[in-house]
Design a protein that fits this description.
By secondary structure, the chain is an alpha+beta fold. The chain has 2 domains: 190 residues, G protein-activated inward rectifier potassium channel 1 (Immunoglobulin-like, Sandwich); 122 residues, Helix Hairpins. The protein has 9 helices and 15 strands. The longest helix is centred in the C-terminal third of the chain and has 34 residues. Belongs to the inward rectifier-type potassium channel (TC 1.A.2.1) family.
Length: 383
C-alpha cells in the first residue's frame, strides 16, 4: 500500500485556544501578545519623566525614526522658513537704508525693492552658488554679515538633510524585513529526544555569513494584588551561531532544566507565555548591526509535526524552494511531555553503568577495609 503524506500549510491557519492565560477575559477578547509577529511590542508609555527632553536630546535618532512623510515635511519647512527669515532681514536692511524709496542711492542689495524681491534673493543665496539680476554690494556691512550667516546655515541644513536621508535609507529595520522566521514552531523527536524547532531564512541574494540566534520565554504574571510582573527565561539553543546561506532550523532540546520540559500537547494549550526569538547579525553590504525578532505563543506551536524539506542539491547549486518555508507535515511523535517520556523510557546501558558506579565504589572500599583488618589480625598474632 502506498503511503500518502499529509502536508499542512500553517501559514494560513489560525488556531484559537482558551487556557489559564485567558481566564478573566471576555468571550470575544483575544490574548494580548507580549511581542507581535513583526517584532514590535504593544507597549504605550504614559507620563514618562522628561518625555520631550529625551527626544530633543537625541534629535538625530528622533528624525531617523520618523515616517517619511513627516520627515519630508520637516525638511521642506526648514528650507522655506530659513528663506523667509533671511528675506525678512534683507527687507529690513533695505528699509532702514531707504533702498525701497530712493532708487538713485547705491543699494545694499541691488534690485531688492520689495519683500518679494528680498525673498527671491534669499532663495538664490541659499540654493545657488552664483547671482544674476540681484547681487550683494559692498555698501552695507550688515548685509554682508547676514549673507555669510545664511551661507553657513545653508551648509548646516544640507548636511543634516543628507545625513538623515542616508541613515533612514540604510535603516537596520529595513534590512531586518528581508530576514524572516517561520510562522509557527514545531515539536518532534530528534535523536531520541523531543525538540522545539523553528525556521529562519534570508530572502536576499547577498546572504548573511554569520549571525547569533537567541530565544527567551516571557511570562507576564498578574498577582492577586493587581501588580503585573514579567519573567524572562533563556532557552539553550543548539548551534547558536549560524551561517545563513540557506534556511536553517533552530533547535531547543526539551531536557531537564528547560522551562518546557514538563509540558505536553494538552498542557501546552493551557499555558500563557511568549517565546521571543531573535537573530542578530551584521549586514555584509553596509556593516550595520541588524536584528530580526518575532514571537510564538502556545497556539503557534505544532506538536507532532516537522517542517517540509525545502533544500535540494543540484549539480552546481543548492536549490531552495521558499514556497515550503512555512509548511509542515505530520510525523510520529510521542504525545506526552519530555518529562513523562523520560520516566517511561527503559534505562539505557549508560544509565545502568552510572547507577552501578556507587555500588562498585562501595564494594571496593569494603574489600580494602577487610584487607586492612586481616593484616592487623596477622600482625597481632605474630606479636
Amino acid at each position: 500500500m502506498d503511503q500518502q503524506q499529509c502536508i499542512i500549510d500553517t501559514h494560513h491557519i489560525t488556531t484559537h485556544t482558551m487556557g489559564r492565560g485567558d481566564l478573566g477575559r471576555g468571550e470575544g477578547e483575544k490574548r494580548l501578545r507580549y511581542m507581535l509577529k513583526d517584532g514590535s511590542c504593544p507597549v504605550v508609555f504614559h507620563q514618562s519623566p522628561g518625555q520631550w527632553s529625551f527626544f530633543l536630546a537625541d534629535i538625530f535618532t528622533t528624525l531617523v525614526e520618523l515616517r517619511w512623510r513627516v520627515m519630508l515635511l520637516i525638511f521642506c519647512l526648514s528650507y522655506i522658513l530659513s528663506w523667509l527669515f533671511f528675506s525678512l532681514l534683507y527687507f529690513l536692511i533695505a528699509y532702514v537704508h531707504k533702498d525701497l524709496e530712493d532708487h538713485d542711492t547705491a543699494p545694499c542689495v541691488a534690485n531688492v525693492r520689495s519683500f518679494t524681491s528680498a525673498f527671491l534673493y534669499s532663495m538664490s543665496t541659499q540654493a545657488t552658488i552664483g547671482y544674476g539680476f540681484r547681487v550683494m554690494t559692498e555698501n552695507c556691512m550688515v548685509a554682508i554679515v547676514v549673507v555669510t550667516i545664511q551661507a553657513l546655515m545653508s551648509c548646516f541644513i544640507d548636511t543634516v538633510v543628507i545625513g538623515i536621508t542616508v541613515a533612514k535609507m540604510a535603516c537596520a529595520s529595513k534590512r531586518a524585513q528581508t530576514v524572516g522566521f517561520s510562522s509557527c514552531a514545531v515539536v518532534n523527536a530528534r535523536d531520541g529526544a523531543l525538540c522545539l524547532v523553528w525556521r529562519i531564512a534570508d530572502f536576499r541574494r547577498n546572504h548573511i555569513l554569520e549571525g547569533t540566534a537567541r530565544a527567551q520565554l516571557v511570562r507576564p504574571m498578574k498577582h492577586p494584588s493587581g501588580m503585573i510582573s514579567v519573567t524572562y527565561q533563556d532557552l539553550d539553543i543548539q548551534s547558536r551561531h549560524l551561517i545563513l546561506a540557506t534556511p536553517a532550523s533552530i533547535v531547543h532540546k526539551l531536557e531537564p532544566g528547560s522551562p518546557l520540559y514538563s509540558l505536553g500537547p494538552d498542557s501546552l494549550t493551557e499555558e500563557d507565555f511568549d517565546l521571543v526569538v531573535s537573530f542578530t547579525y551584521t549586514g555584509d553590504s553596509t556593516g550595520i548591526l541588524h536584528q530580526t525578532r518575532t514571537s510564538y505563543t502556545p497556539a503557534d506551536i505544532r506538536w507532532g509535526q516537522r517542517f517540509q524539506d525545502m533544500v535540494q542539491v543540484g549539480r552546481r547549486h543548492y536549490k531552495v524552494d521558499y514556497a515550503l518555508f512555512h509548511q509542515t507535515t505530520w510525523v510520529q511523535t510521542p504525545m506526552v511531555s519530555a518529562q513523562e517520556g523520560d520516566r517511561g523510557r527503559p534505562p539505557t546501558t549508560e544509565s545502568i553503568v552510572q547507577s552501578q558506579q556507587p555500588f562498585v565504589r562501595s564494594s571496593r572500599k569494603f574489600r580494602r577495609s577487610l584487607a586492612d583488618v586481616s593484616e592487623e589480625v596477622v600482625q597481632e598474632a605474630w606479636l
